[in-house]
Every structure is written in C-alpha cells, then in structure tokens.
Amino acid sequence: MEVMKRFIDIQVPVTTCTLRCHYCYITHNRLFDNKLPTFKYDVETFRKGLSKERLGGICMINLCGGGETLLPPEMPKYIRALLEEGHYVMVVTNATVDRAFNEMVEWPMELLERLFFKFSYHFLELKKRNLFERFFANIRKMRDAGASFTLEATPSDELIPYIDEMKALAVKEVGAVCHVTVARDMHNRSIIPILTEMSLEDYYKTWSVYDSELFKYKFSVFSQKREEFCYAGDWTLYLDMGSGILHQCYCSLFNQNIFDDVTKPIRFKAIGHYCQQPHCYNAHAFLTFGAIPEHKAPTYAALRNRSCSDGSEWLKPNMKEFMECRLKDTNQEYSSREKKNTDFEMWFREKWTHLRTRIESNQTTRNMYNTIKGYLR
Do residues 251 and 324 touch, judged by C-beta distance below 8 A? Predict the structure, then answer.
C-alpha cells in the first residue's frame, strides 16, 4: 500500500476559459479574455522541483487553474511528469478541452490509475452552449481508460429550478447523482461568506437533496475560524506554478521559490496557531487529509466517491485507498517545544508583515525605512 507524504495544491496560471459561469470571478472581471500563459519553468524543472526525494515521498498533488486548467496545450506534459515521478495527481477541469483528453487517454494504465479528475458540472453553461454530449463523453473516456473521477456542481441560487434535471442527467450519463460544493463570495475577503441570497437554513435544505458528503462536510465547517495547531506549510502546501513560489497555504507567512534552484532542499514550516484565513474554505481537502490531526473529518475519498447502480464506483481501488490516507500516519507530529518554537517564529513573521505593510503604505515612513536600511548595509 502506498502512503501519502504531503498534499500540494497547485495554482495553474491560466485565467481564460471555455465557459462564462455567472458565479465565477473570472467572468466578473472579464479575465477570460486574457491570453494563455507562457510557462516560466519547463517540464523537467517542474518535475525535479517536485521530485519524490525533494518532497520526502509520494504526494497527492492537485492542479487547478483560475480559468480552465487544461486549456494550455502543455498541461498534459506537466501532469504526466508528476505521474511518472510516482505522485497521485488530481486535475480540476470543465471537461471541454477534447485535445487534452485525447492525449491523456493514451497513457499507460500505471499512470492513469493514479490520475483523478474533478469534473466541474457547470450545468447552465453546458446547457446554454449545448455541450452536454462533449462533457460526458470526455468523462466516460477517461473513466473507461482507468482514471478516477468525481462530478461536482457549484450551487447557485439561479440553478435551483434545474435541480431535478441536473440529478437525472448525471445518473443517466455517469451512473450517480453529482456532488455539490459550497460556493464562496470572494468579494468579501475579510469573512468569505457563502454565495447566496437565501438564509443558511434554506441554503442547506435546498442543496442537501443531493445527499452529498462533500456538501455536508464543507457546510459544517465553512464559517469556523481554525484555532488549532495547523501543519499547513509542512504537511500541506500551496504552489503558484507560474511564479514557482511555494506558500504555506492561501494566506502565508513564509514563502520560497522552489524552481529557481531545484538542488536546494525545500524548507517546510508549519503555520501553527497563526492561520491567516477567516476560515478554512477548502477544508474538504486540507482538513480531510489531516493538516490538523485532531480534527475529526471524513476521508477525502468519502467526499469524492459515488457508488453506481451497476456496482461500480467513481474512484478506482488504488485511488480510493490513497485518498483514504491521513497525513499523521506518515509524518511526525511536533513536540510541545517544536510547536512553541514554530508559533514564536510565525508570531514574529505576522508582526513583521503587518509592520512592513504599514511602512510601505506611508511615503514618509518608507523613506525613513529605506534610509535606515542603507545605513545598516
């Protein structure tokens, strides 16, 4: 049995998209008009930077773009590099880029059995653009080739009249009802609330008809500020693929470039009790894999899988087993002294970050700061 050393969430630097979902910030800011990215780091550098040796073992690695992840034509090569390195790879996609799936379906089974797709079920856009046939054909293509998948919808108030139609179509095409996530309103980053005009009680009642473990868990922790000691920065990480900057999490107190020199060891630093987010809005990955060991959560596999009427499951056996891993089983928890030292460093980094922000926002103070820095050199 293979075990998971770390979970790494990778942001792919693409904002353009094949769809125009009304709830997406890419649409709100018209970022879909942007050109495809030119990748700063080539495939071999990417692979060496994320080698098993450098990361300490086999990892679960998630790839997600701001727009459609698979639009850059190079993406299958980057995905394959991670698989050939021995990692398990998850790809978030809207399943409309035929070219990418036609390339990946030809890969050997030893790679495909470690590949998982989170197919985003953007029902209204698929319906408007008459893309259902292409969407489900690509899902079945990868499923039949040996990859695992899940089907996930983003609940929005506008989608409510179509709930029964959505469920029926999913059962017909892929054997089971889709999962639903919890949509977040990124306009208010101080609290990041749920994106809805309904009361929370009505919101839960409306979307719980999907009987989705993903929805149940995300809703249960969505607004809870995490106060525990968190191993984000050590056991779990967030990587900007475009810049090469590795962060502790989405809000980070310690960052490092891991691709400029792939011979240098990566420095793993937990964020401890100094989480910078109002709540862990992607707890369904970070907390289910175990960034906070004492937190009780279902396995990630339980949130992604579905059993079909023919007895099959969306997760293939190897992927299901790996998604049931907990990071505490392959990593040593910190001692009390190590936790205190970590918290002291993160406290200092937090204070310094706030001070630097205040300095940079004031021209007079900034001039004094630069003058003092000059004397100290």
Answer: no
Q: Angle of helix 163-174 relative to helix 132-145, nearest 10 degrees?
A: 40
CA pair distance 39, 243, nearest whole angstrom: 9
Summarize pLDDT for 186-227 with one digit per residue, the tens.
Answer: 888 889 999 999 999 999 999 999 999 999 999 999 999 999
Cα–Cα separations (whole angstroms), residue 129 to 106, 123, 151, 164, 375: 28, 10, 19, 20, 63
Residue 95, both tokens: 């399943």
Contact 183, 143 (CB under 8 A): no
Contacting residues for 341 by C-beta, under 8 A, at least 6 apart: none
Predicted TM-score of the model (pTM) = 0.92
What is the rounded CA–CA span in Å between residue 222 and residue 280? 7
- Report yes or no: 208 and 167 within 8 Å, Cβ to Cβ: no
- Alpha-carbon distance 38 to 16, whole Å? 13
For 80, the 3-state DSSP assignment is helix
Site of tokens 């009427």: 309
The CB-side HSE value for 196 (13 A sphere, CA atoms) comes to: 21
3-class SS shares of the chain: helix, strand, coil, % to 5 = 40, 15, 45
In the structure encoding, which two tokens stand for residue 318, read together? 């190897």
121 contacts 162 by C-beta, under 8 angstroms = no
Q: Are 210 and 179 in contact (CB under 8 A)?
A: yes
β-pair partners for 63: 10, 91
Helix H or strand E segment including 28: helix 25-28
Outline where 74-177 has alpha helix (H): 75-84, 98-104, 109-112, 123-128, 132-145, 163-174
Map tokens 């018209």 to a residue: 30
Kindly state the tokens that stand for 180. 């639903």
Q: Is 35 exposed, middle or buried (0-12, 13-18, 19+ CB in 10 A)?
A: exposed
Res 290 pLDDT > 80: yes
Q: What is the pLDDT of residue 28?
A: 47
What is each CA distance from 189 to 145, 177, 376, in whole angstroms? 41, 32, 37
Residue type, 64: C
